Amino acid sequence: MTIETKNLKLIPCDTEILKAAIQGNEILAKKMDVTVQDNWTEFGESALKYSLDKLSESEEEKNWWTYFPIHKQDNKLIGSGGYKGKPNIAGTVELGYEISAEYRNRGLATEMAEGLINNAFRDDRVKIIIAHTLGKHNPSTKVLQKCGFEKVEEINDPDEGLIWKWELERR
């Protein structure tokens, strides 16, 4: 189900959209009938392939992976985001998002995150939404704070270094 916000349409990626994205920007643009700029994602092809594998495993994973934010006024793909799978047994989902450089500092990452948060909490199974950021104040930590998340843990990741874990509980 597409998530609508003021400036964005968040399109849930099915296997066909993900395959098109992996094949390249031109194919994705045709498939979605939107403008796709170079460097629209920093997460890269490996994240798209991972989502495709997970969606291919189970119908239950539908709508719990990648979403593509389309800027309504420009009809342009401006990043990616979504969840790292369906809610676990404890009712937790993990949120992630990115906005391409030319669309940053306009509140669109916050708008996207809020759309994904509201969507997740429509599912009664979801009790907590978590997110992870690098362990320092940055634009992503500001987005999470604006959305009501609280920093709950500091983790030393062997690959990434210091990581902050954030949580938002269902109200």
Question: What's the arrangement of secondary structure elements?
Answer:
Layout: E1 3-4, E2 8-12, H1 15-23, H2 25-32, E3 35-36, H3 45-57, E4 66-71, E5 76-77, E6 79-83, E7 92-99, H4 108-121, E8 128-134, H5 139-146, E9 150-157, E10 161-169
Parallel strand pairs: 3-5, 7-8
Antiparallel strand pairs: 1-2, 2-4, 4-5, 4-6, 6-7, 8-10, 9-10
Structure characterization notes:
- The protein is of the alpha+beta class and 171 residues long.
- It has a single domain (3-169), classed as Gcn5-related N-acetyltransferase (GNAT) (Aminopeptidase, 3-Layer(aba) Sandwich), CATH 3.40.630.30.
- It is 30% helix and 32% strand.
- It contains five helices and ten strands.
- A hairpin with an 8-residue loop joins strand 6 (79-83) and strand 7 (92-99).
- Helix 1 runs antiparallel to helix 2 and helix 1 packs antiparallel against helix 3.
- The longest helix is centred in the last third of the chain and has 14 residues, at 108-121.
- It is globular, with a radius of gyration of 15 Å.
Brief overview, please?
By secondary structure, the protein is an alpha+beta fold. The chain has helices at residues 15-23, 25-32, 45-57, 108-121, 139-146; strands at residues 3-4, 8-12, 35-36, 66-71, 76-77, 79-83, 92-99, 128-134, 150-157, 161-169. 30% of the residues lie in helices and 32% in strands.
